[in-house]
Amino acid sequence: MARSYLFIPGNVPRMLQNMDVFDADAVIIDFEDAVSLTDKDEARHLTQLFLRDHLPPSLDIYVRINSDAQLMKDDLIALETLDIQGIVLPKCDQDTLKEYEASQANFRVIGIIETPQGMIEVEKTAMHPCIDGLILGAEDLKKEMGFTRSSQTLYYPRQRLLYAAKAANIKAIDTPFTHLDESGLSEDACEAAALGYESKCAIHPNQVPTINQLFLPSEADLMAALKIVKKHEQTNSMRFSLDGKMIDKPVIDAAKQLIEKSKRYGVKGVL
Amino acid sequence: MPKTVSVGTLESSDCMMTIKPHHTTVITIHTVVHEAFYDHIKQTIDKMIAAHNLKNVHVICEDKGALDYTIRARLKTAIERYKDIIHG
User: Fold this and answer.
1) Range A4-214 classified under CATH 3.40.50.10860
2) What ipTM was reported for this prediction?
3) Chain B residues close to A12, C-beta within 8 Å
4) A237 touching B, CB under 8 A?
5) Beta carbon pairs, A and B, within 8 Å
């Protein structure tokens, strides 16, 4: 249900301490790309003690661990007693999932699909019992595939991941936008939202307000959903016509979901 | 191999913890919040080096307003790295 997933480095106290003031719906503490190989132990100790002493209430917290087997093992040991929402598994495919399972950790997992292998296995990965969601990692995928990033080149990976996630009834989270210009971010997020994505990663706190706003239902959508649910409740019917359109169960369910999301994030002037 | 380790940064809310060999155990603390927190930081460092049975070291803490968890985390990493160097 979160709209924004903000990455913050696991080795920077200032960022950890401020994680709850950036207004992100969820935070991903990073042990992977944001932390150099020689500083992994620093990040583990800092994050572990921070979360033990200062766990922010009402914020979904994930930790992106490393995909290398030994680093993954050490990361998971550091996290084992912490009350976090789950871990984020980079370079997620069947092999990295096996590696994760071998660790016998019990965290829920959001997998980052960022390799060609991960993409061709995405349907299987989405159905894996420990998987709660999938993130598209376009930058690594771009590097591996040799494409340049555009709405055209991202169309296929976005669609394929989204179908896999929806079929498995798990979260689909759009790739971060790596430039810091707001108009580019808006355009990129709108493209993802138009395809059906309901959330997106942020790599800078300044990206969070734009993402939160763009993945919030519009007042018009909320009004329409309220009207549908009202008529459904009044008629106690699962199939009826409203404003010239046929309404049935999937539409009613979608309207209820939209109302729930609007309530959670306080769509202005309506609820 | 140099037997000095430094962990952390001099950025705001962080601290840099350095450990090097010394003929006795000495703790040096430079902190931007000296009056309010010097004793607390000293106590934290004393406790941790005792718990890790670390002797004959000079521990230098350059504090830039770090919270207690940061001081403990940086020192924990520094102690582990120092022991790795000393004991191989």
Assistant:
1) no
2) 0.94
3) 11, 14
4) no
5) 43
